[in-house]
Design a protein that fits this description.
mainly alpha, 2 domains, about 5% strand, 4 helices, about 100 residues
């Protein structure tokens, strides 16, 4: 092993080459995943929703529940909750188009 400036060149080269191989594999896997999403989209699935489901499946159950609670809280605060009826609040006024 040759030392250059106190660095074992062969050892360093080994690490670099291993990382490069893994980066190539990672790119190949990313391309495969992209292909699967394209296939799913082609058969009518909503890719954005699929990505959200994948993200949720990676999360701990308690974290998912907390996130859903916070989203529901924010929707209520903004008058976007499903159980709220804007027509009841604006009795006599024309209903406005919902802007999401």
């Amino acid at each position: 092993m040759a030392d250059v400036g106190g660095v074992a060149a062969d050892h360093l080269r080994s690490y670099i080459e291993r990382i490069e191989r893994l980066e190539e594999e990672k790119k190949g896997i990313a391309d495969d995943i992209k292909e699967i999403f394209a296939e799913a989209k082609g058969t009518g699935f909503d890719v954005k929703a699929m990505r959200a489901v994948l993200r949720l499946r990676k999360m701990d159950k308690a974290d998912v529940q907390e996130q859903e609670y916070m989203i529901d809280l924010y929707k209520h605060a903004l008058g976007m909750a499903a159980d709220e009826n804007p027509a009841e609040e604006d009795a006599g006024n024309e209903p406005e188009a919902a802007a999401f």
